[in-house]
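Attaching the record inline, Q. Sequence:
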Amino acid sequence: MEKAEKNAVKEEFLEPLSTANEPSEFVKPCLQKPDGFILPYGVPDPETSEIHRELSVRALTGDERSRLGSPSVKKNLGKLITEFIVNGIESVGGLKFDHTIAKKMLIGDRETALIAVSAATYGEIQKIDSKCPYCELPMEHNVDLRRIPIFSPVHIQRDGTGFTFEIKALVNNAEIKAKFKYPNGALQEWVSPIGTNNPLKAQIEMMEKLCVNWNGNPVAPGMFRDGSARLTNDLEQSIAGHAFGPDTDILVKCSGCESEYVLSLDLMDFVFPSSAKMLKKRSGRMYSL
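Structure, as predicted:
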């Protein structure tokens, strides 16, 4: 037994970059291996219900990349992510990857897959420009995509409504208990055009679609649209604590004044690294989940 333990190969994992955010109790680090990416949750096998997490990726061709710039794809963040990862991912575990899987994937997994495809296509080390907020020195950072902090969900549930989590929160000075679904690629594609024009409206529409139970009762249609603004505001922080996937707020140090500051990475920088400023309309990350 002791000999077997000595001969066992110890798995190596990469040390993630420092994150600017304090992880909540509802997520845990998803460490990455040097030779590939692992999804923070994964894709369930339709036959066995086994969760597949290891990605097999390839680089996009020039033609595949150029098609991502078409107006119908570029203007919809959800569709852009779907097409990008469908072109670059060959399989997840033993499952052949396709549009159906991409749309069923939870957003945290989709964003991790996006980073994996970008690393295979453009290289694991990508240059990101910023300016120090303290001394205004222009900076160029070599960001190792394999070391971007990624977090897995701790209390995810699977039931007839999908992949869910429960929250307890103080809303309008009253304690409530609610159940929400994690958003997937199909919902991301649906809400993206709304969020481009009005991120706050997109947030409300997401809550309408994702909340499946409120204090033990079915959710009434229009509960968040017609309810008070305080209702959604009080919920946002509790919901955000369950968000999983890449944490794109990393800590960097200025080479001039040596101050530490937050470098917020944009997912579009990983889709179009060299031409991101020309092709994208920055709208931030539209989802708290």
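Confidence is low (pLDDT under 50) at residues 1-9, 276-289. The chain is about 35% helix and 25% strand.

More tomorrow.
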